[in-house]
TrEMBL record:
Keywords: Hydrolase, Metal-binding. GO terms for molecular function: hydrolase activity, acting on carbon-nitrogen (but not peptide) bonds; metal ion binding. Signal peptide: none annotated. This is Polysaccharide deacetylase family protein. SUPFAM superfamilies: Glycoside hydrolase/deacetylase (SSF88713).
Length: 212
């Protein structure tokens, strides 16, 4: 069983105050984000579900997946969603030297083909020295709610329950459009969208940073 926090806590936000964890919205708005795509079938399923609710999201793409599945990548853009950088090879910042990590981010940016103001570190793991070199160019986006859809020991029902339990106005919520997360994500996403749409929530892409 994986250990992770479904809800980011105050300690993490205090240690990394320059990262984006949650929006201050008091209005019923949720910021959906999807990591690790684009992937055929999986990302296309996500796009279909979002379209049903006129939901806009931010997709943090792996550069190598953009390279391999460019048609799917274009579908995400054409549907009006935003794109974020998630490194080229899903690198763990803690396990890589700064120069290697930053070059991998740049390689992803080249595959994306246009400037994106958003970066999310894979696994949420990034050294402060790496972040210091990114913050002038990117909003480093973490999360308020981690669905845990990647945890194959967790049932889809638990994934849905925890996601609904911790999501609130302004939450940045992480799903994964990956095959590993597919069993939990395909169950949780449509039900989560339905639950909050019935309560008057809107689903939006991340606001553009003021310097973008």
């Amino acid at each position: 069983m994986s250990f992770f926090l479904h809800k980011s806590n105050c300690l993490l936000r205090t240690i990394y105050p320059d990262f984006w964890w949650k929006s201050d919205d008091s209005e019923p708005v949720i910021y959906l984000t999807f990591d690790d795509g684009p992937i055929p079938e999986v990302t296309e399923f996500v796009l279909e579900q979002l379209d049903k609710y006129a939901a806009q999201a931010t997709f943090f793409c792996i550069g190598d997946n953009v390279r391999k599945h460019r048609e799917i990548f274009y579908k995400v853009i054409e549907a009006g969603h935003y794109i974020g950088n998630h490194t080229f090879n899903h690198l763990n910042g803690w396990k890589n030297e700064d120069v290697t990590y930053l070059e991998n981010i740049q390689r992803c940016q080249q595959e994306i083909g246009f400037d994106t103001p958003f970066f999310r570190p894979p696994y949420g793991r990034i050294k402060k020295s790496q972040a210091a070199q990114l913050l002038d160019h990117y909003a480093v986006v973490m999360w308020d709610v981690l669905t845990g859809d990647f945890d194959q020991s967790m049932t889809p029902e638990t994934c849905l329950r925890k996601t609904i339990q911790y999501t609130e106005p302004g939450s940045i919520v992480v799903f994964h459009d990956s095959w590993k997360a597919w069993p939990n994500m395909r169950y949780t996403l449509p039900r989560m969208l339905s639950h909050f749409a019935e309560r008057g929530y809107l689903f939006q892409a991340l606001p553009q940073p003021v310097y973008a």
